[in-house]
## 1
Amino acid sequence: MENDTKTVYKVPERNLAATITSKNFGIACSAIATYSREMEKEINRRKRFEEDKNSQYVGEIKTHVKVTATLVHTTELESQYGVTHLYKFKDENSNVLVWFASNIYWNPITGQDIVLGDVVVLDATVKGHEEYKGRDSDSPAIKQTIITRCKAWQSPEEKKAAAKARKIANDARKAAYVASLPQEVQF
């Protein structure tokens, strides 16, 4: 990465004096830490591109796919229309799947929001096939499948078990509510 002129953080030339005074000491110190942090981000980004370069498209456009995938990246994108959650998954063959969602994905297996490293079985519709180039023109194009209408795939037995668990939880909530009422109000 020698002579990297595309760094995000550049120290203005006026601060590159032969001596560092107390007036610009803070800038000089933060410049070193910031440059180091940006170089680490760039190394990680290039490593991700290298891992993803063998990705292939999954499924045909406008068809449903059922895929077991691992969440490898997530971020929030803000716009004038609100927040969009970007989820990047990898399947068993290291194919990249990208999902833009308006809501946070709830992992029914763990019972909480999905986190990096979670393995989920998704039932989704293939919206399109795209090549992601990244910020640099020297980065390889990554084939990625854009998916939409994702939900956790469950077998019929799992659906019945989940419905039964919801009914039990609702009954317990109702019983707790009734028990919390004064004696003269109880049914």
## 2
Amino acid sequence: MATPILFESEEQPPLNLQLRSGHRRNQAHHLNTQPQFNNVEEIAPPSQNPQNYVPFPTFARGSTYSFTEGNSYYHSLQATFDRRFSGGLTVLVDYTYSKCRQDARTLLTGDIGGYRAPGIPGFGIKGDYALCDWEVPQIFHASGGYELPIGRGHSLLGNVQGVANQIVSGWQTYWILTLQDGQPFTVGCPNATAAGLGCNALLVPGQNVYGGLHNVNSGSIRRPFPSRPPRPRCPSATSPCSAERPPRP
């Protein structure tokens, strides 16, 4: 079920100029989605067998199953500038700023990842209410055309006639420019955090998502210190024990 709403205004001042702006909104409910079937319903350590935490342990987990439980919304602000200049020049510019979020997933799109815990009570598919796969926040288009002033009645070769005029006149050139943001994607966790459940990396405020100390060979984060634990040493029975890291071999 979809509920589209459109507010739009248009103005045509003189000089062959057209201005148009509007707000588009669309809400959809009961969208078809595939959260799968026989999912894990309890949170357990990743070392546990997830098959022990599904409703039907004798059946396979994650079987394809469709539900009409998805929801989404789309909002956008749009502006258009259209001008026809003298001399055969036309310019069309439009800009769109939008936001789209949903919790529906399909088999054809999966850039934002699947459901992490669709069977966990209180989380479900609504816990993955996120940006749409096709979300493009900003789009800018600029296009135009120009009729070349060549041929009879124009500034160039204006006196040409007959077949020659048919050949050199009527030529036009067009151009178009498109600038837009990229679509979203999800970074998953390198290691499992719960048995049979998914995990997404968290975006920490104030941290550079492209920075940090990383091992480019294995993809793991470098340890600032050696991984060997400190070895306790007791100089005597009366003095307290102190922890000292053993020397490197």
